[in-house]
Amino acid sequence: MHLHKYEKIWLLFGIGSLVVFLFVVGYGAFWQGTHPQSHGVTIDPNNIESNEAFKPENLGLTKVDEDEYIINIAASAFYYDLGKDEEGNSVRTIRIPKGSKVLWQAATKDVIHGFHVAGTNVNMMVEPGYVSSLETIMDNPGTYTIVCNEYCGIGHHMMYATVEVYE
Amino acid sequence: MRRQEDKKASEKDKPDLKGTFVSVMLLGIFIIITWVGAFALFVSR
Description:
Chain A folds into 2 domains: 1-35; 38-166, Cupredoxins -  blue copper proteins (Immunoglobulin-like, Sandwich). Chain A has 1 helix and 11 strands. Chain A has one helix spanning 5-30; strands at residues 38-42, 60-65, 68-76, 79-81, 93-97, 100-108, 113-117, 123-126, 130-138, 142-147, 160-166. In chain A, the strands form 2 sheets. In chain A, strands 1, 2, 3, 4, 6 and 9 form a 6-stranded mixed sheet that branches. Chain A has a 5-stranded mixed sheet with strand order 5-11-10-7-8, with no helix packed on it. In chain A, strand 2 (60-65) and strand 3 form a beta hairpin. The mean pLDDT of chain A is 92. Helix content of chain B is 87%, strand content 0%. Chain B is built from 2 helices and no strands. Chain B has helices spanning 2-13, 18-44. The longest helix of chain B is centred in the C-terminal third of the chain and has 27 residues, at 18-44.
């Protein structure tokens, strides 16, 4: 088979790029733990309280260890339930120190919602019947808005909360 | 004499792929730049 010199160059270039790309993706998936946000962990969407993490008293921020937190979120149209503070008011802002390792766990009581801490990689789809979870290290201080980025109904645009990463 | 003519003829038959080569490479570079850009964004956040 005769191949033109230029054809050989771009075939080599193309195959080389593919190898590099697959290596980067494979490294992320198998060594760094990058994977889809739903791990196939199921939950009863009509009774998410049956799961320990989504009991009303366990919602919101929980400190597990030094610089290690779990944040449980119950999403429903059109609200993120982040638990209650000491005075019994609904938490609208979560404050975490910079550099913390955070495990985000979200479940929905009704329709599909999104969960995006805008400006970070925390971006999940929250589907009825599944627990979505993602672990990140919050390295960049700032105030981030949690937004629903899956259209969930008439009040979709009102569905938000805030995360503050402080130094 | 005959040989030279043959050589000339076969060179003429070869397709000119210079333009194709440049455009394929430009496209490849564009894809790589956008991919690396998105990946850098992912890593830095």
